[in-house]
Write a structure and sequence with these properties.
disordered N terminus, binds 3-methylbut-3-enyl trihydrogen diphosphate, binds magnesium ion
Amino acid sequence: MTGDNEDRNCPVPSHVGIIMDGNGRWAAARGMPRGFGHKAGVDAVRKTVRAAAELGIQHVTLYAFSSENWARPAQEVRDLLGLMKLFITRDLAELCANGVRIRVIGDRQGLSADILGLVETAEIRSRDNSKLNLNIAFNYGGRDEIRRAFVKLAAQVVEQGLDPASISEADIGAALDTGAQPDPDLLIRTSGEMRLSNFMLWQAAYSEFVFLPCMWPDFDKSWLEQAIDEYSSRTRRYGGVHDAKDVAL
Ligand code: IPE
Ligand code: IPE
Ligand code: MG
């Protein structure tokens, strides 16, 4: 189904990051508890992964639980952790069958042994898949990720005699959880909020941002296509000039 993109004037983004927001408001609008929205949000995750593969997107990063989300009521945190476990348990076989490679980014030290075990199993079982790279950002914060990269590099300075002045942007990028993966081309946030909330702070330097009004449980392939169409209409300049016409102006 990659032919879906043939009529687009710009290549499909290689890496799409998604801030999946609005589960609580979606549930509240239906007179239901927030956990109901999170459950519906998992169905939207399934649809999105399938749609991304159909559209030929190579890398998808989903923001599932931030390092700040521990501040939520204990029951909600339990619901979110439970859904993560359920998602891996129920969906791993199908994701593997569809060629999806799963990686979890974020601080693992804050995760319980049962979640860690599932995460490691998912990563190991899916590591030879190459149709779609799926990063799940869980217990993830952009500042914390950069802090942990600093710690790694500082250890190399102390233990391996790395010259601090030699540390390049590429070295810092490689020390992040996303390692060698390309930066996100397109960042989508649902629910109408227009902020990063600590998502991919380093990697988003030149990402295109698309903010959608829909709540996350309502997100589907047509919203993804709408975001990609918007992305396709943008001119990425990376600080330079686009073409000779720009220079003449
Ligand atoms: C996104 O929905 C899911 C997570 C942050 C885990 P929210 O739970 O933030 O929903 P709203 O923003 O309160 O509606
Ligand atoms: C960002 O959403 C985190 C995730 C989507 C996992 P939040 O709902 O936590 O962000 P804020 O609090 O509105 O900034
Ligand atoms: Mg929110």
